[in-house]
Amino acid sequence: MYRSRFQSELTVYFVVLKAFLLITLLLVACDRKVKPSGQEPDPAQICRQFLVQHGWLPAEYPCEIASVHIPQVFDKVYFNYNALQKEQGFDLSAYCGKTVMKYVFCLTAYPPDPAADVKATILYYHGAVIGGDISSTALNGFMYGLLPRERSPDGKNQIR
């Protein structure tokens, strides 16, 4: 009699354990359906969309992706670059000492000179665009801020 009571308790224990494991597996499976893995937004596409929203015509994919360490203390180059960022409403001083991602896109059309080799650089950190520029490395090259882009009366983008 003692042995059969022990077997009954053991059987109940295993049934409860199996039910617990089954419920746990179902909850995990349901959670994956709600938040599928691999569905995180692609930072490169977020950066590209940022450019498109501001009137630029970037290539579909970046031509360069790199990590960039923003120094704790700005030298003259970073100080001047941050001044450009501040004109656009960005401020890199909040990211001193951090490593951020740099996404560079070739622009497929640059209104003043459609044949020019012009690139858009976006600085990205933890889900947000934190700065960037439009530049040309040609002999008489230039560097402008990403913003603002305006539309002329004929509907074409122009640099302000």
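(the above was protein one; protein two follows)
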Amino acid sequence: MMSDDSEKPVADPKPDTKSSPPPKPDTKSSPPPKPDTKSSPPPKPASKKPEEKPIELPAFEKGISDKLVEKFGDKVEVGFVKKDRVRINISKENIHKVAEFVRDALNYDHVESVTGVDFPTDKEIEVVYHVGSYTDSSLARQILVLATRAPREENPIPGQDSTRLPSIRDVFYSAEFGEREVFEMLGVYFEGHPDNRRLLLPEDWADLPPLRKDFAIKGR
């Protein structure tokens, strides 16, 4: 009786001895980065600013301001010195003495104009005299500005409040009408002035002085 082929043992398959070779190491590696030979240029040295030359003041005008400072020291302050113009700021206590000095020692002989400026934030009103000379030819083109300040009242009663300055009308007669105009337009009363009447406004004017910054025209 023949045996069934299905009962024959099946031989194990031979292992595949031809395996794939191991991967070769990658010998072509990326080259190391090259050092940056192009370094940034050294910073430029800071440019030196040209030295500012002191402003050369005109000699004649500086001589005028120097005489006032020499005489009064810290009682006066030089506002500016320029060609044909010198400004001196003065406290109200010294305005009369300075006016006498510029008349007697510096040969100024008249006030050309008097004006005023309202400074509400400073609570002051500034009065400015422009002084000149007819008799000294060296001063023919010169204007000496004398500026002083008076306290400013919020509710002014001109002539009856603290907004006052010494008058220099007795030093320079030509200051008479200028001081009167400043009195009525800004409310600065000039003590020692012989005629502190209004000049342009009616005597019964009851509003604020019209050149004060808080003055408002009715209907606007």
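Reviewer note on protein two: DSSP finds three helices and seven strands in the chain.
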